[in-house]
Amino acid sequence: MRSPDTSFVMMPSTILLVSLFCVTSVLSAPALQVIGLRGSVDDASERCKRSADVFGYYYTEINLSEYGRTTDEVKNEVKLAMIKKTVENSDSEYVLILDSHLSVLLGQPNDLLQAADNLKADYIYIAGDAKLGDEDPKPESIFHGLFARTKLLNEAIPKPPSVLSEDYVQSYLDAIRAKKGTTLMDTSSAFFQQIYNNASNIQIRFEHDRGYLQNILTDTVPVVAVANNDHEAKRRLNSLSNYLTRSWSPETSCQACDEDKIDLDKLKPSEYPVVMLSVFIVRPTPFLQPFFDRLSKLDYPKNRIHLTTFCAISEHQKLVDEFIDKHGSEYISVTELNPTDHKDQDQAFLHAAALCLDKPDCANLFYVEGTVQFTWPGTLKHLVSTNRSIVAPLMTRYNVFWSTFWGDIAEDGSYKRSDDYFEIVERRKRGLWKVPLVGSTFILSRWALSEISSDYLEEAFFYLSLTSTTTKKNVFMYVDNREQFGRLTNPTSYSLTHLHNDLWQLFDNPVVSVHSNKNR
Predict the structure, then answer these.
(1) What pLDDT is recorded for position 494?
(2) Torsion over CA of 81, 87, 88 and 94, rounded to 10 degrees?
(3) DSSP 10-64
(4) Sheet with 486-488, side-by-side order of all strands
(5) Please, how many CA atoms are within 13 Å of residue 296, restricted to the half-sphere of its CB?
(6) Residue 135's domain is classified under what CATH number?
(7) Which of 102, 256, 323, 370 qualifies as a FRET site for 230, CA 20 to 30 Å off?
(8) Coil vs helix vs strand at 485
(9) Cα–Cα distance between 83 and 115 in angstroms, integer?
(10) Could you read off the pLDDT of 289-322 as tens digits, one per residue?
């Protein structure tokens, strides 16, 4: 710290010079304006916005939600007219147009401008299919990825007619061909990296605290990642983005984990978000007595919890009733879902979701199956604090890698292991990881419940239904492996035909067996 007697004195002329410099810096427009086309706000559009914030872009969203939930539901002529309105009022020399639901910025503005300068083109379009080589831009290319000189683009886009039609977009494409300026379809991924399900040509590299992509086939480092608009490609981008935009790196570990975190320690227990605890017993399950004991000991005020139960196994109903008799009065409300009223697990879950949404105070639904043994009482408090759309605590079965999430999904909807699955399960990498599927137990935000309930896609089994729906609606699923939450019991060999059924589980569930006996 500089002492008062040696403090620096700024001369008047210096003050004037600095003042003029500051005013000029404030008034001068950024060289690049990024325009994100957006329907309704969702996790994907917020990810794109975050990537712009992390790297310091001048970012503008065009809100198209009155025309469609996502941009692909909006007519091309409407999107083009909105772009025209934005670029004609832009003072930036360059403009980048992206679909915010499908895109992530990978580097700083200077990196992006340098990549564009290297390509020596006035218009750079994302390539639809690299196998086709250079070609004229298609209408969808305009809205999924376009870098251009703002002045040229503004001149090329005609003034919108009083009645918009597809001819308006074609008139723009004709103008591009007729007017001055060079056009490039980026088939080498030097600027845009299009993400497909099969992304074996893409590798993640790290530079200090930042992850980036390298295309090993073309030996290029793209500055923008754009997913193809299908479920497989969107899930692939979700997985890659775990390591991008300063989210996680080997040097810093998880950088994004505490973003938007709810600090419950600063709240009174009476101010905690209200949760609906939904207990589902959907198969013959061992050790339900310790399951309910541990559930009752979760460190979260029961007067901030609504309880719902669904028991599809009649032999287990007695334990459910005993739990409700003992603790039911401690919860805000108790609702039992009758299995005869629901044809499957999907319908029972949607009923529980509706119950939460019908209660104005219900902020989250905590879904818990009977196979989940919470050994850490702070689990629910921790999951609420993450403030994400859907989060599953990482839990595994004894001595196997069966866990509460999948790292990838095959094209036929079956299980597929991701490259980082073992590292996450073994906690060699710790953080909050976007994953394609979660199961057994997870917490859902009110927004996520609303999105899922409004357009539910029923698939072969419940978890896959949830995955298809959330992928379509851009609701992100996470698994959290920063804490030791507990274990999953293995119900595979469990039978209800013995006098003491749990005693037969010594080998398949030894940890739970020993723990339960010690507590008797």
Answers:
(1) 65
(2) -150
(3) --HHHHHHHHHHHHHHHHSPPSEEEEEEESS--HHHHHHHHHHHHHT-EEEEEE-
(4) 372-374, 486-488, 396-397
(5) 16
(6) 3.90.550
(7) 256
(8) coil
(9) 23
(10) 999 999 999 999 999 999 999 999 999 999 999 9
